[in-house]
Amino acid sequence: MTDTPRSHDRLIFDPHGGMPRLLAIMSALRDQQTGCPWDIAQDFATIAPYTIEEAYEVADAIARGNHDDLRGELGDLLLQSVYHTQMATEAGLFTFDDVVRDIANKMVARHPHVFGDQNRDKTPDQQTADWEAIKAQERAARAEGRTLDGVAIGLPALMRAVKLQKRAARVGFDWPDVALVVDKIAEEAAELVEARDTMSLAEVAEEYGDLLFVMANLGRHLGVDPEEALRAANAKFSRRFNAVEDALAAMGRRPADSDLAEMDALWDAAKAHERMTD
C-alpha cells in the first residue's frame, strides 16, 4: 500500500505537537484530495451552529462543575476557531496567526491599566466603564455611528435584548426606576391577553416578544442576567420533574398513567424536599 503524504507528517501524530498539531490536522481534514468529504463540504454558515452549540456546552460543563468535561468542551470550542480560520486561509481572507495577533492586540489596547501607564487602582465597575469607553472608540473608528451598531444579530435573543438595552441606556434612553419597568410589564401582559382573544397568531407573537423584551429589561435593572436566570429555571424544572417521574416509577407508573393533580402534588413534594435539604 502506498503511504499518503499525511502518514509522513510527524506533527499530526505527535501527542506533544500542541497548537501547530491541531492546525495541521484541520488542514489535512480540509485537503481537497485526501481530506474528509464532510469537512471539505462545510463552509462558515454550516459550521456556525456547531460553534454556538460548543460555546453552550462549555457553559454547561461549568454550571455542572465538571472540570474533566470542561477540558474536553474547551477543546471542542477551540476546534471551531481553528475550523473557521482554516476556511478563511483557504479563501485568502486571513490566517490563524492573524486571529491570534488581533485578539492579543485588542487585549493589550483594552487594558491600559495593566499594559500601559494608567493606574490599575480601580474598582471592577470603573474598569468595566473604561472597557466600554474603549470599545466605543473602536466602534467609532469602524464608522459604527449609531448607538446600537455592532450588537451581534446572532446572539441568543435574551442576551441581545440586554445588550441593546444597555447601549440605549448609555445615551439616556432608559427607565429611571425599576417600578416603571414593572408597570410596563403589567401593560405588556394585558396587551398579550387582549391579543390572545382578538388578534392573529402573528400579532400574539409580537405582543409576547414585547413582554419578553421588557422582562429582560427588568432583569437588567435588578442586576440579574436573564439568560443565566432562565438557565437556572430550566435546570430547576428538569430536576423537579425528574423527581415526579421517579416518584411515579416507585409506584410502578409513568406520567402518562397519572393526572395533573397527582403530578402537581408530587411536584410540591419535590419542591418541599429541596427546601429542606438546602
UniProtKB/TrEMBL annotation:
First-level EC class: hydrolase
A Pfam family this chain is assigned to: PRA-PH
Reaction(s) the record says it catalyses: ATP + H2O = AMP + diphosphate + H(+)
GO biological process, any: response to stress
Annotated GO MF terms: ATP diphosphatase activity
Superkingdom of the organism of origin: Bacteria
Domain NTP pyrophosphohydrolase MazG-like as annotated: residue spans: 42-115
EC nos: 3.6.1.8
Family as reported in the entry's similarity comment: Belongs to the nucleoside triphosphate pyrophosphohydrolase family.
Stored PANTHER family: NUCLEOSIDE TRIPHOSPHATE PYROPHOSPHOHYDROLASE
Protein name: Nucleoside triphosphate pyrophosphohydrolase
